[in-house]
Design brief:
Structural class: alpha+beta
Number of domains: 3
CATH class of the largest domain: Mainly Alpha
CATH superfamily of the largest domain: Butyryl-CoA Dehydrogenase, subunit A, domain 3
Helix content: 40-55%
Order of helices and strands: HHHHHHEEEEEEEEHEEHHHH
Radius of gyration: 21 Å
CATH topology of the largest domain: Butyryl-CoA Dehydrogenase, subunit A, domain 3
Number of helices: 11
Shape: globular
Amino acid sequence: MINLSIPQEHQILRTTIREFLTKEIQPIINEYDREQKFVPPLKKMGELGILGISIPEKYGGSGLDYLALAIACEELERIDSALRVVMSVHSGLNNLTLYQWATEEQKQKFLVPQAQGKKLATFGLTEPGNGSDVAALQTYATRAGDEYILNGTKTWISLATTADHFLIIARLDREKRGTENLAAFIVDRNESGVTSHAITGKLGIKTIDTGEIVLDDVYVSQDNRIGNEGEGFKIAMSALDNGRFTVAAGAVGLIKACIESSVSYATSRNAFQREIGKFQLIQEHIAHMQANYDVSQLLVYKAAWMKNIGKRNTRETSMAKWIATNNALDAANRAIQIHGANGYSSDYSVERYWRNARGALIYEGTNEIQKLIQAGYVLGYRKDPPLRCDLPPA
């Protein structure tokens, strides 16, 4: 049975994160967004144990569960999406993937410093010529004795110019299309042939670096291959399960931010000699936002529960990502409407919420892909075999 009560340690976690972000980040975030400054307080996040929150203590993490990860992502995106993006790529797509698939030696070498916040990590799947179509992936790895030579370009990679480690998905046979001959590799930024540059002009999430990673004859030891040859697609999909979970949880936090901003504005703004919150059409917006918040949070917490008991959760996580991100964009739309002309100004946070919310319908699998996933399960076209490792973090 699902227990809907929130344990005390999780409530303390929420309070700790919220107090820090409210004091240190919230006062500067709008200015940093306008100036497109990189804002995530990585050192403090590491000190608080957030970067390894759902990784066992023996691997440098905090040893908390997936509900704790969800709560952390909620609180981070309540302030700004960039803070949650760090969790998505570092913790969701990289750390948890290593925890599920890496050898003990690889966990000690890569996972431990990442979970401790001493090294920052990201994930490289998307390329200039393919996004959702993983079968069209072009980056390739050529075997050379005990090493692989990697060539290719990854794009729209969060922390591309900041991360120390990249989890790269590459093709083993350059000429063979499909998902059967993919492999996963950890690539260190300092390896010869690795370059990166920033992508500018983004609509939203401007307070984090996004860019391209170029691999030009990069030699990687076979000891840095995660899993076996041919398991790259499975590894990538398990990574996306965890990444999508953090995106969905973050969207819940963004909805909460929209509600809080709208309630504050509606109870302080007067029109026709009364608070605008007393008008029924304003109340309709507030009611919709609250309903969508509750639904989205329940979907995320259900996925967290399934993760905690080690149960396959691809469908549930996909559903949470689809519904929560759609609801976050809807909440931001409604928040702007409540704020009227002020909602169109960068002096208020709600226009930033909208710009940030819009991206989540695209990354970690577009919401069109999530719909296809859901339909596939209902029609019986899609069935999930057990993952090689899908254990709870405790």
